[in-house]
């Protein structure tokens, strides 16, 4: 279903070649590029920060979707906005002032996203619904690619879709998306699917066709 956007996560790309990886996966049909920032504190893994996001930015024609798995996030929001994030997503669990965080993101000119860990209830976003553009439902515990999908999150997506009503808010799914799990989430009400290993497996910048085949299979 092509009304569903596919957002390949560069966590599964060649870290020495992000620029070419982003351009290649876009040419192969990616709708957004999902950029996973991890701090080794909020999640048990470290990736990269705003300087890398800024370096990647000129190689992306479409939406750069930056997922911050960092705590605290607020002190760094301006830097990620300056790096060129279109969507800037913070975790609801990353700090005590989610309302302030999403306001800061919009004030910086970015679309505001809130990510929910698997154990966090849907109603964590209830009182910010008029101030956000995206909810990212984590269908794995954040930190690593290649984990398997947690199916209890299907019900959370249904709850969020009902709670959102007619507000123009994307529901994005992150973790364990495959040709088997993706349709379940689309049916529950998701409209942006992040996929790392399922997109990048079998391909490379010099052998890009598998990226396109993988995207079309999701
Ligand atoms: C997990 C990241 C995801 C990850 C998804 O912490 O937020 O974006 O890259 O990887 P796959 O699609 O392999 O589960
Ligand atoms: Zn992510």
From TrEMBL:
Belongs to the ribulose-phosphate 3-epimerase family. Binds 1 divalent metal cation per subunit. Its cofactor is Fe(2+); Zn(2+); a divalent metal cation; Mn(2+). Substrate binds at residues 9, 67, 143-146, 174-176, 196-197. It comes from Pontivivens marinum. The lineage of its organism: Bacteria, Pseudomonadati, Pseudomonadota, Alphaproteobacteria, Rhodobacterales. Keywords: Carbohydrate metabolism, Cobalt, Isomerase, Manganese, Metal-binding, Zinc. PROSITE patterns: RIBUL_P_3_EPIMER_1, RIBUL_P_3_EPIMER_2. Catalyzes the reversible epimerization of D-ribulose 5-phosphate to D-xylulose 5-phosphate. Pfam families: Ribul_P_3_epim. Gene3D superfamilies: Aldolase class I. Its EC number is 5.1.3.1. GO terms for biological process: pentose catabolic process; pentose-phosphate shunt. This is Ribulose-phosphate 3-epimerase. It comes from the Bacteria. A divalent metal cation binds at residues 34, 36, 67, 174. InterPro entries: Aldolase_TIM, Ribul_P_3_epim, Ribul_P_3_epim-like, RibuloseP-bd_barrel. The keyword Hydrolase does not apply.
């Amino acid at each position: 279903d092509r009304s569903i956007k596919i957002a390949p996560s560069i966590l599964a790309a060649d870290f020495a070649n992000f620029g070419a990886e982003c351009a290649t996966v876009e040419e192969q049909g990616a709708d957004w590029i999902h950029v996973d920032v991890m701090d080794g504190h909020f999640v048990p893994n470290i990736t990269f920060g705003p300087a890398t996001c800024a370096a990647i930015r000129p190689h992306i024609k479409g939406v750069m979707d930056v997922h911050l798995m960092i705590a605290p996030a607020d002190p760094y929001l301006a830097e990620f906005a300056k790096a060129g994030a279109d969507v800037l997503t913070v975790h609801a669990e990353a700090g005590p002032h989610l309302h302030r965080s999403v306001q800061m993101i919009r004030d910086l000119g970015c679309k505001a996203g809130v990510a929910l860990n698997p154990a966090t209830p849907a109603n964590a976003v209830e009182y910010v619904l008029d101030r956000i553009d995206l909810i990212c439902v984590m269908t794995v515990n954040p930190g690593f690619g290649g984990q398997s999908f947690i199916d209890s999150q299907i019900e959370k997506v249904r709850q969020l879709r009902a709670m959102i009503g007619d507000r123009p808010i994307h529901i994005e799914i992150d973790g364990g998306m495959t040709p088997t799990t993706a349709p379940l989430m689309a049916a529950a009400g998701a409209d942006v699917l992040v996929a790392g290993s399922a997109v990048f497996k079998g391909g490379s910048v010099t052998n890009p066709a598998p990226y396109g085949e993988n995207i079309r299979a999701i």
